[in-house]
Specification:
homotetramer, 337 residues, Aspartate Aminotransferase, domain 1, 2 domains, 7-stranded mixed beta sheet, 41% helix, 18% strand
């Protein structure tokens, strides 16, 4: 069975797992107060050029999102997100469960549009309404698109003129950084966002995400917020050492690039065979449109997500290449269609 | 530096880590829907003698506690706990953050007393008060004591007569099961509790806890509750395979016994040298009372928790033996005092 | 200054206030346990033909909505509402503050469409998504439209096939019942909805709304939910006696009819003068489209809501007739345009 | 039947109700933006000597408490209260429902002890624990005692040294101000507290409480918090005009004094007949200890609260004098015992 279903279905990149094996029985302090977490934090601060950034380690993207948003917002403050936003669709109301309203904006391509944000802010102008306070963006987005530097800067300006915070969900940040069109690095993201996270689970880590908070006002008592949300991991050193391996010499970005290159190869091959894509391929997710019969046939040999019924005899499927995918696997798929 | 600070400061038991290494690159379905999770669940159902038990995998004890209590309770329902209860002290109000009140009962030894529970229920008798609905117990308890079967059965009866659910936080369940005085096994716990969890993080697992729900009314939609709390781990297979290793042939119970035997040796040695313990030793936590000077001296050579100042020139410290501790380490400590 | 801004800007209908004056110093039991609350409840049960309906008294529509929805839903369950829904726009996230997600459906006329509800239910089909569980409708709706019996029955069928509850926000129920097109009474609403409220504050009461719960599963412990939300009014008798006056002999429906007739007169007059309405007039809210200049001129002499800028030199304003409005006031307005 | 059960069982002081009757049909702006609310606010600011105090109007003490505490606290912050505190016992977990933990301190007499507060703060010293942030006190307290100025000043100092806010629940503030031992006025309370409320419902108002916020940091967006909690009353003018009547010429304090004087007469009479009180009488609540037989006999002729069983053949009952109680009623009771 060919596996193109997602990018979180094997354990860890071997180099990451080796590091855990090597340090398995080393006594460490707990709750991310250990040397590995601190060393990695220092490295990240250096890489992003912000010596005062707060660095935290949490397992699971939903847990990061809900912890951050609950920590950053007052009760009456709301989050602006796209309608496709992960928090709006696939987190079972985790943010609302912390008491906050989402204000959802439609998009063409999964990217949040500054003008749409302006409009949301303009109409929320009375005390019987929530106060928009933060934008939530994903990069790569849910349909696999990637922000450009210019787009991120435009969002930052939009945030500044509307007194909004800017938060990036980086579950697939590796694939954004590895994208052909990506014209920025972690330091740009750190400069533009008030907070973001570097997702490990979908790109090489066994488990864990690294949270970066650059806005001083958001830093105090963040660990209390983590604990309250069940996000303060007792054995933080395990996450700290994984990110050391992933980020020290660019393995993280390299794995992202690998995913994206296979994504491009897959998309190009599909298009060369005359099929259309529902979304432009920009990273490791490819959304071809096939007939229902063809999808039924493929399901016998390939694991993938059945994404959307077009109700015209065709449907969209989602194919995902991961750091563990190979060119042979891509070719194997292309040979099937 | 001798390490007796806690039982969660090395990564994993080598057999557990080996299993991950061996299966590292095996494609699995996600969100605990994989074969490893299912196989382990089947095994646990067999071990506890409940073919219908719901089994779930979550990383982190606080996350388990808040997910379960939020899932099981209606908004106006409250949790009865001891004042020392982990949820009452060391989880930064995680349960209250889901909207629920804790009703706290003092204890002598960290164990919940059925008569105290009866009293709490008796006085909560009007619609301006919360409705007690579940008891929360830890086993081993925070001061390291262990429930007997008779005590658990008495609590079950108490729950039945007061229409309460019974939930056990098993962060240190291995050490309860390994205790000299323990006269029950997992199947008894499953029979008596409506839900409980088998803690992995403190006893051999790299990360992960295994939740067991036996009460049919608490089973539906639990995964939605997990997701909403950020507790649905994408790579569930990693937790599933760890518990396979830990529980298949009794490694889990064996490690607990090891911890407890070293705890006893440590306690006996300390008492033999003429020192008193603040709590009777029953598991892997030992609470000796030393003079302030002695504690200051020990701090140079041993890592431990400074537990409580007696304000009489003495203080209580907490020493914890773990599955990785050795008899030599215990002797090394005893030689120091 | 002519007042056409809303229907909650004088204190109470004289008959209602007289009743309070007359009973001012009568000792009563508290928290809605008094004879007046019970007598009114019995009368309402009789009027709606449901001897088992639970009747409660709460001050303020937002408080009713949040109390009911928090009481009726499990944490992962969501509310389906129109995008214009009061809970979605003008209650500062009150429902989300109790932890629940709103699923918002666009409309033409403020009324919830059963097919749109079906679609929402169809796509919420996995455990990473909230579970739709209740529909929230307002009657009259925010743009002043009124449901027909056929529409309400279609929504009930829709709820039944999707396992949804049906809840009606009756802040302006008097004006729905008084509408020309209304072909049902309170007993139909009680038969079709699982719960609804009869709004007093906008139609004759000094303060207070009457909540009706007909679904047996939603009745237990509702008072605990009220108390937790700050909605259990100590002097409930004041609300009970007001609804006795309003409902006993149809004063409530009569006042609604008065509002609506003036609304129709106002709408007809505006249309007769050649202006368009943004929404068809069906109750006591009229939404004419005037030029910006004309609106600026009117603002000097009339109090009304400036509703929406059309960005073409015209704008929509909202005019509201209330039970205290007179035909002379309507004519006075019509003479101005 | 003689009524000594509570102080909220008739509608309103005649002067208060007259004011509503007189202004019944005056058009007013809504949501406390009207002239009556503003005029009363200006008067209160003058009376308390704080021209910048924020003044709000809310109906119901529980609603005030939960709105204020939810507005003032970050998610991980906790409230210090006495174990008898109204929020800890009789509000069905309303504060926890907004996500916050209560830290409860035992008392002798219902008053919060600064040293106990210091101890709570001292032990909450790690990021796995909630952060104490505000003290909640009631005045009069639940057992009817009244703080002295020295006690309130000591609590303020305690708050300052522990970085705590100070909040007073003034449900029965009239009776505190009217107490013989009271050596302060509203301006002292405003100077010492960060926020407090002047309870109307138990002392002359038909419905409504007046919230005073003196701490600048707590003022912004309070109305959004009110709305989110269902506490923004559409017809605020009704509350505004009531407090104008109550506070303008001291009627509020006078009614409180009346309650307390009758309380003292009642207590003195009971003691003169040889009975003991469970709490020293300081305001309008009297807690005599009678035999079970005597209580059973009294219940036939008097309405009161059966407070506590002493399990020795005697019990404590609660008698409450209200602004509408008369000396004759007190004598009538004394003649019965």
């Amino acid at each position: 069975m060919l596996f193109l279903k997602n990018d979180y279905s094997v354990c860890a990149h071997p180099a990451v797992l080796d590091e855990i094996v090597k340090n398995n029985l080393v006594y460490s302090d707990s709750y991310c107060n250990d040397e590995r977490c601190e060393k990695t934090a220092a490295m990240v601060r250096e890489q992003i050029g912000d010596p005062d950034a707060a660095i935290h380690y949490i397992i699971g993207g939903t847990l990061v999102n809900k912890t951050c948003l609950a920590a950053f917002l007052k009760p009456y403050e709301a989050v602006i997100t796209t309608v496709e936003g992960h928090i709006a669709v696939h987190e079972t109301g985790a943010v609302e469960a912390t008491g906050h309203r989402l204000l959802e904006v439609p998009t063409d391509d999964g990217k949040l549009d500054p003008e749409a944000v302006d409009r949301v802010c303009a109409i929320h102008n009375m005390d019987q309404m929530v106060v928009p306070r933060i934008i939530y963006i994903t990069n790569t987005t849910e349909p696999g698109t990637v922000y450009t530097l210019a787009e991120l800067e435009a969002l930052r300006e939009c945030c500044d003129r509307n007194d909004l915070l800017m938060y990036m969900d980086g579950a697939r940040l590796a694939m954004a950084l590895g994208a052909e069109k990506c014209d920025y690095d972690l330091s740009d993201i750190a400069r533009l966002c008030d907070a973001f996270y570097i997702g490990g689970g979908k790109c090489g880590a066994l488990a864990g995400e690294l949270v970066v908070i650059t806005n001083d006002e958001l830093k105090p008592f963040f660990r209390q917020n983590m604990r309250q949300n069940g996000a303060l991991f007792a054995k933080g050193m395990i996450v700290g050492m994984q990110f050391d391996v992933l980020l020290r010499d660019g393995l993280y970005q390299e794995l992202g690039r690998h995913c994206d290159e296979l994504g491009k190869k897959l998309a190009d091959g599909i298009k060369a065979k005359g099929y259309k894509l529902a979304h432009e391929q920009e990273s490791n997710m490819v959304f071809p449109i096939f007939t229902n019969e063809m999808v039924a046939e493929l399901e016998k040999k390939v694991m993938f997500e059945d994404w959307e019924d077009n109700f015209d005899g065709t449907r969209v499927i989602r194919l995902v290449t991961s750091w563990v995918s190979t060119e042979d696997e891509v070719n194997e798929f292309l040979d099937m269609i």
